[in-house]
Amino acid sequence: MVTKQPKSAPSVRANTGQLVQPLDQWHRPFRDLRISLTDKCNFRCTYCMPREVFGADYQFMPQRELLTLEEIERVAIQCVALGVRKIRLTGGEPLLRKNIEQLISRLALLRTPEGEPVELALTTNGTLLASKAKVLKEAGLHRVTVSLDALEDVRFTHLSDSNVTVQTVLQGIDEAAAVGLAPVKVNMVVRKGLNDDQILPMARYFRHSGHILRFIEYMDVGSSNNWNWDEVITGQEIVGRIGAEFALEQVDAHYRGEVAARWRYKDGGGEIGVITSVSQPFCGDCTRIRLSPEGQLYLCLFASQGYDLRAMIRGGSTDSQLAAYIHGVWSNRRDRYSEQRGTEQVARPKIEMSYIGG
Ligand code: SAM
Ligand code: SF4
Ligand code: SF4
Question: What's the 7 CA to ligand 1 centre distance in angstroms?
Answer without folding.
Answer: 33
